[in-house]
Design a protein that fits this description.
This protein is an alpha/beta fold. It has helices spanning about 40-50, 85-90, 95-105, 120-135, 150-170, 205, 210-215, 220-225, and strands spanning about 1-15, 15-25, 30-35, 55-60, 70, 140-145, 170-175, 190-195, 195-200, 255. The protein has two domains: about 1-65 and about 140-255, Rossmann fold; about 75-135, no CATH class. A seven-stranded mixed β-sheet has the order 5-6-7-3-8-9-10, sandwiched between helices. A three-stranded antiparallel β-sheet has the order 2-1-4, with helices on one face. The protein is globular, with a radius of gyration of 18 Å.
């Protein structure tokens, strides 16, 4: 089921074109990873999807009644302000206790409800932001570099939690990643952005694209840990860091000049 369709989207900020000619769709249940260099417009695209940025041109169509959960790149909280996790999750409006419990459990931190926000570790803080995004049981979950500042283990744990959320809710996930060597192993599709979409498709195909190599260098693809998502396989079939076999000829790659 198509949740989101973007056609010929142009976005200008401060009189400068940031995104140009964006064509993208997101279907229910798929995980899409958005990559690109700094300043390529990744965060702007997510903010446009949630309505925080108004496009200059183009069409952005959401499925009627679409619910979006959004985890921002960063969120500053006054460390001197006493605020337990449960209270934070009930802002700006109070949430039922069972909804808070459920969101924390889905985010993998069921025991942090009474913990003060100021004393959370980086990984715990990101899980709380994830819980906040999950309160409405979103159809589409947007993650803007949600693993920034986490170590490799914390990143891997966070990704596994996202997979579990997708399986439980049946939602789609659009995730911005800035770390090419830990591109989300469950990604059904990778979209390479640099003001416009350069290429998109399965990860192992994208990294062999001339457009991708022009952005990140000819040797970058060889350094990536390739992972392929397979709904019918268990996690132990392809442990983290295990290269996947070459993709079949059926793997799809779209390249935009």
């Amino acid at each position: 089921m198509r949740l989101l369709s973007i056609d010929d989207l142009h976005v200008a900020l401060g009189g400068r074109i940031v995104l140009e000619g964006i064509d993208l769709h997101i279907d229910r249940g798929e995980i899409v990873t958005l990559i690109g260099p700094n300043g390529s417009g990744k965060s702007t695209l997510l903010r446009t999807i949630i309505g925080a940025v108004r496009p200059a041109h183009g069409r952005l169509a959401r499925q009627p009644g679409l619910t979006i959960g959004y985890v921002p790149q960063r969120l500053a909280i006054d460390a001197t302000l006493p605020m337990p996790v449960a209270r934070f999750l009930s802002l700006p409006r109070r949430r039922p206790a069972h909804a808070v419990h459920q969101a924390l459990a889905r985010a993998g931190v069921p025991d942090l409800e009474d913990r003060q926000m100021a004393v959370l570790s980086g990984g715990q803080f990101q899980r709380i932001l994830l819980a906040r995004a999950l309160l409405e049981k979103p159809d589409l979950l947007l993650l803007d570099e949600a693993t920034q500042g986490l170590d490799h283990r914390g990143t891997a744990d966070f990704y596994r939690q996202i997979e579990a959320v997708r399986r439980e809710l049946g939602c789609a996930v659009l995730m911005v990643s800035h770390e090419l060597h830990v591109v989300m192993r469950a990604a059904d599709r990778v979209v390479c952005l640099n003001g416009r979409i350069c290429c998109q498709g399965a990860l192992e195909r994208v990294v062999t694209s001339p457009a991708y190599r022009a952005l990140f260098g000819p040797d970058t693809g060889d350094a990536l840990a390739f992972y392929r998502h397979d709904h019918g396989r268990h996690e132990h079939d392809h442990p983290a860091g295990t290269p996947v076999p070459p993709a079949s000829d059926a793997a799809h790659l779209e390249t935009t000049s």
